[in-house]
Amino acid sequence: MASPPQFLQFVDQHADKFIGRLAEAVAIPSVSGDGAHRPDVFRMSAWLDGQLKNLGVTTKLVDLGKHVMDGQELPLPPAILGRIGDDPKKKTVLVYGHYDVQPAQKSDGWDTEPFQLVVDEKTGRLIGRGSTDDKGPILGWLNVLEAHKALGLELPVNMRFCFEGMEENGSEGLDDLIKSEVAKGKDGWFDGVDCVCISDNYWLNSRTPCITYGLRGLVYFKLTVSGPARDLHSGVFGRMVHEPMTDLIQLMSKLVAPDGTILVPGVDDMVSVADAEERQIYEKLDYSVKDVEDAVGAPITLSDDKVSVVMGRMRMPSLSLHGIEGAFYGPGAKTVIPASVSGKFSIRIVPPQTPEKIEPLVVQYVQQEFAKLNSKNKLKIENLHDGRPWLADWKHWNYEAARRATEAIYKRSPDLTREGGSIPVTLTFAESLGVNVLLLPMGRGDDGAHSTNEKLDRSNFIEGSKLLGTYLYEVAAAKA
């Protein structure tokens, strides 16, 4: 079912207004991983709740309780549940998104202030933290709602919304909320949901839209090595004591090889080798080694073979080192021996891997490697958060609706992909609701989510809003 021409025209005609609303959202530094910004995350939830209500959505802010982060007890940002439409003759689509963002400071290497949306008229880029991850896609749904309200058009489906403010920091409290709402049956907010649509990932490149049927899971670890009671002077105590930083660097160096091989025994071994038929799926993708090089800004791929590179992102686990906490990193030449340092790393996992299978392997291996150092320092290993991988049936009518919508808006068939990132709630929705879950991305592969100068192209924001609306019409017409 084609979307009404007046809907598409409305989106085009109100593009500047929609970009202005995105600027308002980006201006709220809703960083969930920084306790100092927790009030801003709450401010973002209130702003989004108000926007939804103004567009006719019945909402509820759900208190998810409290949690401890970096030794500080903090209130969890509320989940926003919403509903519009209760026609039993229509399908019901549940939409998920998150209104929190990654940390960002101009000193990180941004060309502009990260929490001020900059519209680059020459390139059409909308630059700002959260523009593509995930405030732009959330506002795409709002653009659809506004168009229908203003034009007096009836939505082709019933809609339910679930927006959270902790996705970038483990989605704490959300799984329990979803399960409790499902358990309420007809009294719950998710009663009657036929399918789920999530727009929180990206095209493989900047040319070809895609629909995504798989995600990697995640296990995020923190290794802490501590020794002296306080920081020490290297001129006084150097080569006299076991230094925590030396131990930590040794441990971190034993986790992953330069070619990406995970050195923790048993992790890579869990994943089967792709057969010829599966390799053909990756061969057909409109994606190349050059696309990767363009996205990262350097010729640094682990292989020159396209399929190997693509599978490294989509169907293989990966281990990445993220940073060291407690170490000296400022300007100057401070000759300090840190008393305690923490290394952070994560493993992206794929079926049949689960956090429950991976964690014991990592803990045992790290402890064994630490014992080899014969150090008198102390080691602590923590799992900061985790999530399981997910795979969906890409032959389901929900995916067929997304394919038709993509072809209608972009005039080309989308790539069918598995994504390298993690959205843990995807699996929760699939298992709790027992319905098909679809990932329908708005942004491009070079958007730089989680990086400096994050952007969303104007064309992707506007055409992506049309795509989300058209998808709803295709869902309405699909034969379930």
Question: Can you describe what's shown?
Answer:
This protein is an alpha+beta fold. The chain has helices at residues 5-13, 15-26, 38-54, 135-151, 174-183, 234-237, 244-253, 276-284, 289-296, 306-314, 355-372, 397-410, 425-433, 458-477, and strands at residues 58-62, 66-69, 72-75, 79-84, 92-98, 118-120, 125-127, 158-164, 195-198, 210-215, 217-226, 232-233, 318-325, 336-337, 340-349, 378-387, 390-391, 415-419, 436-439, 455-457. A six-stranded mixed beta sheet has the order 1-4-8-5-9-19, sandwiched between helices. β2 and β3 form a beta hairpin. α1 (5-13) runs antiparallel to α14 and α2 packs across α4. The longest helix is centred in the C-terminal third of the chain and has 20 residues, at 458-477. The radius of gyration is 23 Å and the shape is globular.
What secondary-structure arrangement, pairings included, does this model have?
Layout: H1 5-13, H2 15-26, H3 38-54, E1 58-62, E2 66-69, E3 72-75, E4 79-84, E5 92-98, E6 118-120, E7 125-127, H4 135-151, E8 158-164, H5 174-183, E9 195-198, E10 210-215, E11 217-226, E12 232-233, H6 234-237, H7 244-253, H8 276-284, H9 289-296, H10 306-314, E13 318-325, E14 336-337, E15 340-349, H11 355-372, E16 378-387, E17 390-391, H12 397-410, E18 415-419, H13 425-433, E19 436-439, E20 455-457, H14 458-477
Parallel strand pairs: 5-8, 5-9, 9-19, 10-18
Antiparallel strand pairs: 1-4, 2-3, 4-8, 6-7, 7-20, 10-17, 11-15, 11-16, 12-14, 13-15
